[in-house]
Amino acid sequence: MEYRRMGKTGLQLSALSFGSWVTFARQTDDHTNERLMMQAYDAGVNFFDNAEVYSAGLSEEMMGRVLKKVNWDRSSYVLSSKAYFGWKGEDKKPNQHGLSRKHLMEACEEALQRLQVEYLDLYYCHRPDRNVPIEEVVRTMNTLIQQGKIFYWGTSEWSAAEIMEAHMVARDLGLEGPSVEQPEYNLFNRMKMEVDYEPIFRNVGMGTTIWSPLASGILTGKYNDGIPEGSRMSLEGYEWLKERAVVEDKLSRVKALGDFAHELGVSLPTLSIAWCLSNPNVTTAILGATRESQLTENLKALEVLPLITAEVKERIDVIMGTKPVVIRN
Amino acid sequence: MEYRRMGKTGLQLSALSFGSWVTFARQTDDHTNERLMMQAYDAGVNFFDNAEVYSAGLSEEMMGRVLKKVNWDRSSYVLSSKAYFGWKGEDKKPNQHGLSRKHLMEACEEALQRLQVEYLDLYYCHRPDRNVPIEEVVRTMNTLIQQGKIFYWGTSEWSAAEIMEAHMVARDLGLEGPSVEQPEYNLFNRMKMEVDYEPIFRNVGMGTTIWSPLASGILTGKYNDGIPEGSRMSLEGYEWLKERAVVEDKLSRVKALGDFAHELGVSLPTLSIAWCLSNPNVTTAILGATRESQLTENLKALEVLPLITAEVKERIDVIMGTKPVVIRN
Amino acid sequence: MEYRRMGKTGLQLSALSFGSWVTFARQTDDHTNERLMMQAYDAGVNFFDNAEVYSAGLSEEMMGRVLKKVNWDRSSYVLSSKAYFGWKGEDKKPNQHGLSRKHLMEACEEALQRLQVEYLDLYYCHRPDRNVPIEEVVRTMNTLIQQGKIFYWGTSEWSAAEIMEAHMVARDLGLEGPSVEQPEYNLFNRMKMEVDYEPIFRNVGMGTTIWSPLASGILTGKYNDGIPEGSRMSLEGYEWLKERAVVEDKLSRVKALGDFAHELGVSLPTLSIAWCLSNPNVTTAILGATRESQLTENLKALEVLPLITAEVKERIDVIMGTKPVVIRN
Amino acid sequence: MEYRRMGKTGLQLSALSFGSWVTFARQTDDHTNERLMMQAYDAGVNFFDNAEVYSAGLSEEMMGRVLKKVNWDRSSYVLSSKAYFGWKGEDKKPNQHGLSRKHLMEACEEALQRLQVEYLDLYYCHRPDRNVPIEEVVRTMNTLIQQGKIFYWGTSEWSAAEIMEAHMVARDLGLEGPSVEQPEYNLFNRMKMEVDYEPIFRNVGMGTTIWSPLASGILTGKYNDGIPEGSRMSLEGYEWLKERAVVEDKLSRVKALGDFAHELGVSLPTLSIAWCLSNPNVTTAILGATRESQLTENLKALEVLPLITAEVKERIDVIMGTKPVVIRN
C-alpha cells in the first residue's frame, strides 16, 4: 500500500481507503462488513470513512460493532465522521442538522457513541452551511480539538472561497483551519480538484479524501448494458444519481475508455481509480464495496498507477473530453 | 411552526417559545407543566426558557423532572438558564448572585443539576452587573463554552453600550461575544428593540428572545374589568407589576386595540404577539402559560402574523401611541 | 458585616476574614476550629484563608474536615490556598516548593484534596520566586482557571514591579493577570500598601487580603508586660517574630496607642484593625484566633470603623510615627 | 546532589539523572531496576528519563511497575517520555510514529498507561520530523499541557533552526515553545552543545538533558582491550554504535585521557561525566546503569566536578582534540 501525507498535516492516509457510504446497512450486513473491512485492513488500508448521514447512523453503528470485534490497535487506523445532514432522516428537527455549534457538538458526541470510540481522527463539515457564520464553525471545531474529541477537521464539497474564509478566520483568531476536503473527483467531475482548489493546494496546503472515483459506478462499465435491478443506481433515495448517470453520451465515452483500458491490459475501474491517484493533490480515493471480489479488483488500482504516464493521461483526456478548460483574459 | 436563526448564529429557535417564568412552581404542578410542555413541543416549539431566579430554582427543577420524563431527544430542543439574581431568595449571601466568575461558574453547575442535563444551549446574564468588569464576564462565559457546559451566551436587559463593550472586550481577547439578548418587548415597551439595539442588529448581529409580549398580561385584555384574585398580577412579590399595569390610560388603549382585533377577526392577545413577531429582529417570543387553552390560543399568533401588514402596523401605532420617536439634531 | 469587592473583580469578601495560619493544628483542635469557624461564619465572615505551608498541610486538612462537617453551601464562602513553601517541611525536595508549573499544578491538586473541595476561589503565589519566569506562573494559573480548579489567582508579598510584570505578560498573551495581593499591613508596616502598590490600585485595580493586622499580636497590647509562655510569639519556629516584635521602642508606642484607644472608649486591637480597614484599598483583614472571646473582640472592629476619622488618623500617625514619608525630587 | 534549573523554567533537575534507555528490559529485570532506581533516588537523583522506543515500551512498563512499588511522592521526582519512533518495532504502521498530532496524542496516552502515572513532567519530540509542520507539533504539545497530561515539552536532537522555528510559531500563536533539548554530549560530540545551540542558550533559554556522556561506553575505558561479549556494544540492534565506537584512533585518545584521570586521582568515567557537567548549559547528564557498582562510581562525578578547572579543561582539549573550531569570516 502507498501512504500519503494528508496535505500539510503529519497524518498519513493509505492512497486507497474504505468508505461505508450507502452500501453499509442498506446492502450489507455485519458479517459482510467485517470481512470487507478486514480485507481492506490486511491490504494496508488505514482510513475508514463514515458520516452521520450514511444510512441514518446505521452505517456508523455497523462500523462501530466491527471495530469493536476486530479490535485493531486504535493507533493503526484513521476514522472519520461528518456532520451536516443529521441522521434522523425525515423526522429531523431544526438544530439536528447544519453546522451550528449545537449540531456540531451534539453530532460529534453522537458519532463517538455510535462508533464506540473515544475520538475521531477526522471530522468533516459534510456540506457548507450558509446559515452559520464560518467563525462559529472554526471555533467549534477548535473546541472539539482542545477537548480531545477530534484530531483534525475538514470540509466536504465546500467552495474554494469558503475554505479560504475558514483559514482567514482561523488565522485571525490563532485557531486551526481545515486541513482536508472531501470532494467528488472522477473522470466526469474534475473542475474543483483541478481548477478551483489549485491555489489552496499551492499556497495553503490541503489534503483531499476524494469520493466517487468511479462516478457512482458508471466507470465500472456495468451500466453499459443498462441498469440492473439491485445495483446502487436503482436503490430508493438515489434516483438523482440515475438521471445524471444514464446519459447516453456518458456511456459511450465510458465504452471508449473501456476499450483503451483493454488496450493497456487493465480493467476499466482500476484504470479510472488509478487516474484519480495520479493527481498528486489526491491524498486518498475512497472505495465503497459490497463484495470481496469487487474490493480485490479495485485495490489493484495501485498496481495500475505506474501506467498512468503523461501520454496515457492525454489519451484519456481525448477519450473523455472532460478536462477543464479555463480561459483567463 | 416558523423557525428563525438566532441573530448571526447557526442556532434556530421556534418563533414562539415556552417560558416557565413565574408561573412554574407557583401556579402550576408537575402534571400541568408536563401537559403544557408536551403541547408546546408537539406544536413545534423548540425553545424552553428558564432562569435560576424563577421561583427560586423550583422552576428549573420542575422543568428538569418533566424533561427527564418525556425523554425528548436532547438535540431536538434548546434549553436556557440565566444567572444573576441567585435562587436562594432572601437568604442569599454576597457571592450567590451577580455576574462574578464565582457566581457564574457555580450558578451554571447548579442549573445543570436542577435541570438534570449535561449542557445548556443558551446561558444568559440575567441583568447587567456594574460591580463586575465585563472582561470577567466574557472570560467566564468563554471558559464555560470551552468546558462544554454551554453553547452560546447572551444578556438580558443590558443596555446597547454594555452589549457593545462585551463585544469589544471579546474581540480584543479573541473570545466570543454575546450572541443573544432577552429584552422585554411589547406594544408598551418598544424603545430598546426599535431604537437602542438597532445599530447592534445592523452592524454586529444579535438574536432576541423577547419576554412579556403581552405586557404582563395587560394585552390579553383580562384586566379591562379590574384585576381578578389569583391572576399573576395579584400574586405576592409582583406588586411592582401592579402599579405599572393598572394605569387607567393604558387600559383604555388596550380596549381600543381589542376593538381593532375584533375588526380583523382575531383575538387581542394573538394580535399583540403577532405584532412582536412582525419585527424581523425578534427571534422568538416567549410565552408563559398555566392552562392548555391559553397556550392553544397564543400559539395561533403565527397564523395572525401574515395579517400584520404595514398598514395594520400604522393603525396599531395610532391606537397605542407608543411608537418611539427619536429626534436627532 | 460589611462586604467589599476584591479590587476590580466581581468577588465580594467580608471586610473581616478568618485565617487559619499558624494557630490551626498547632494550638487548636478540630473541635475548637469548628466552633471558631462557625462563630465567624455566623458573624458574616465569608472568606477563609489557608496555605499549604500553614502547619505543613495540617491546617488545610483541619479546615477541610470542618467544612465537610458544617456543610455550608459551597457558594456561600470563599476559600483560598497558597503555593510556594511546600508543606513537607524539612524533607521537601527541589520541586516540592517554588512557583514552577510542576509545583503549582501539584500543590493545587494536593490542596484540593486536603481541603476536600472541587475548586478554590482564590489561589495565591505565596511569595515571588525569582527562579521561575513570571510567564510560567501566569500561564499555569490560567491553565488552572481553564480547568475549573481555581477562580481567581493572586500574589502574596510580591513587589509592585513583579505584580506589574505579571500583568504585562498576561496582557501580551491575552491571559488573566493577578487580581489580589496578600501583604502584611498594620500600623508598623505601611510602605507597601500606602506607597508601593498605590499606582497599581489606581491604574490596574487590585484587591488586598491583608495579614497580621495586629502586627503578630503586638498591637493587642498583650506583650506590654512581657511575652507569656504559650502565646504565639513563644512557639517554636517563630523565633524570627520574637526578635522583631519585642523591640522596646515599639512597645512604648503601643502603650501610647492603648491610651488613645481608651480615650476613644474602644479596645486597642479593635482600634488597630479598624485603622487597617479605613484604608479603602484593603479588601479584607484576615484575623487569626484560638479562642472565641478573642474572635468576638476582634470582630467588633467594624463597629469601631466609623470612629476612624481623618482627625483620628492624624493622631494615630503622630503616636505611632510610622506613616511612610516619600520624597520625590 | 546538585540541582539545576532546566533552562529558563522553574523546574529543577538533579545534575545527574537516571535513564532507562537500552539497558532496561534488555539487560536487567524488575528486581535489578528497583534496586538501581532506589539507589539513584537515595543519592538525590530526581529525574528519571524514558521513551516509548526504549525496548519497545518495555522500559516504560518496567519503570512504571517500580514507581508503583516504591511509591515515592509523585512531586519528588520528574518523569519523562518521548514520542517519535513508536514502540511497536517492525510492525508499526504509518501513524504509529512521527510527530503528527495523532501520534503525539496517542503516544502520550499510551506512555501514561505504561508508566501508570497521571501526567509526565517532560515530554519530548524524540527526533525532528520533516513530514509534520512544526505548527502542528507546537499546537499539540500545548493542547497536552492544557489537558494536564504534560507539564513541559522539549525536543531531542533537533537542529538549532528547528528549535527556533518552534519558538517563532509558539510566540506567533501565544503558545508555549519547547523548554528543553536532549542532545548527545560528550568528549567526542561537542558541536551542537558548544556551537549550534549557543545563541539559543544566550537569547531564548533552554535546558538540556544530555545523553551518552560516556559516548556509548567508550569513555569508561572498558573497550581499550577489545569489546567483551555481553556489553552494550555487542547487543543486537546496536551494531551502528560498534562501527563508530571501535575506531582505533578514538581508543588511543581515551587511553591518554585515562592516564590524565589517573594523574588527577580520579577514574576515567567520572572525569568524563564531570567534564560534561562543567558546561553550565548542561542541566543534567543522564546515566544508564545495569549494576549498582557502576552507578555508585558514576554518581561520584559530582565530587570530581570541582577539579574541572579552566586549566584542566585545556589539558583535556589537547588530549582529545575534539574541541569545535568555528571560523567565521
UniProtKB/TrEMBL annotation, chains A, B, C, D:
InterPro entries: K_chnl_volt-dep_bsu_KCNAB-rel, NAD(P)_OxRdtase_dom_sf, NADP_OxRdtase_dom. Residues 16-314 form the NADP-dependent oxidoreductase domain. Pfam families: Aldo_ket_red. Keywords: NADP, Oxidoreductase. It comes from the Bacteria. PANTHER family: HYPERKINETIC, ISOFORM M. Belongs to the shaker potassium channel beta subunit family. This is Aldo/keto reductase. It comes from Sphingobacterium hotanense. The lineage of its organism: Bacteria, Pseudomonadati, Bacteroidota, Sphingobacteriia, Sphingobacteriales.
